[in-house]
Amino acid sequence: MQGTILIGPGGVPKRNSLKFEPAPGLKDATITFGPTEYLTKISGTTTKINEVVVIESLPFYTNTNKLGYGPYGPTTGTAFEVPLENGEVVGFFGSAGDFINSIGIYVIPHAP
């Protein structure tokens, strides 16, 4: 996947972008991928707000950036990780209200 991922409304995957509008006072973030760069791992933290579990932070890892982009958001909650072996993240899905409540990934095989 080549191009730019926008983290900043809607959450609907497009070929080279995802959009999510951050809370008021926070800035949009742009991650620009190199021509052979692709997502290899998603992780983050969750927390409870009014007894509802929400995604608190998300860093994004690629084949060329093992340290990751981000994290975007505070990292005080419970950690989670979705590692992949020989896979490439090509899209996202999830649910949200005022906050992101769940996130999932679409993956295709990627030759080592």
UniProtKB/TrEMBL annotation:
InterPro entries: Jacalin-like_lectin_dom, Jacalin-like_lectin_dom_plant, Jacalin-like_lectin_dom_sf. PROSITE patterns: JACALIN_LECTIN. The keyword Plastid does not apply. Keywords: Lectin. Residues 1-109 form the Jacalin-type lectin domain. The keyword Ribosomal protein does not apply. GO terms for molecular function: carbohydrate binding. Pfam families: Jacalin. Belongs to the jacalin lectin family. This is Jacalin-type lectin domain-containing protein.
